[in-house]
């Protein structure tokens, strides 16, 4: 009888379900498979959305979320945790309770507050709870600039201004670009020790659904594999850019990152 496959690091993902398959848990699963990790998906919310925008959502009862995650934590060694859509302050409390069982496990927080089309994915107090209570428990957060502005309560703030407001709450902050009209995308990693790392990449044509989920879950996977944080950020950004370069348009809306090769199942 053959022996089981070598151990793959397990990443616990707490995210919403996107029925279009472009973002949310499906993005997490595909990106983590591509890194050689095993995704353990815990559903936090159900959404009504397509590749353009979200029209409705429902946050799951916290007991259901706790039951899902605790069952996995009791069965598998968790090497990293990735957060996506939480949708409520109560879900922030749920994550903090779960992290008490996972001390020293890197937590990657993708503060999903709005869909790509602009639809809200939580009330205003969710952003405040994420900043004040969840950020201190995280290794890194990965907001795009519009999300960073919401979290920092700076509606017109630059990335540097938002980072100055947010860094007292978190060790590492990756603010992603791409929401202006610049020819190059500027992604900025700010660290609580005062250091900063800039990463640029060419702007690609079109708009994309699920790029933030892809980046955050890939980063969690690289950390689960033991990669140093700055290097893991670079690896995650490079991989995400490639998935956008090769993106597909399955419907009438935005492009969806191609996170797995075409011959993956062949």
From TrEMBL:
UniProt keyword Phosphoprotein present:
no
One MF term in the entry's GO annotations: phosphomethylpyrimidine kinase activity
Kindly state a single biological-process term from the GO annotations of this entry: thiamine biosynthetic process
Q: Which PANTHER family match?
A: HYDROXYMETHYLPYRIMIDINE_PHOSPHOMETHYLPYRIMIDINE KINASE THI20-RELATED (PTHR20858:SF17), PHOSPHOMETHYLPYRIMIDINE KINASE (PTHR20858)
Which key words tag this protein in UniProt?
Kinase, Transferase
Q: What is this protein called?
A: hydroxymethylpyrimidine kinase
EC number(s) per entry:
2.7.1.49
Task: Offer a single GO CC term for the protein.
Answer: cytosol
Identify the SUPFAM superfamilies for this entry: Ribokinase-like
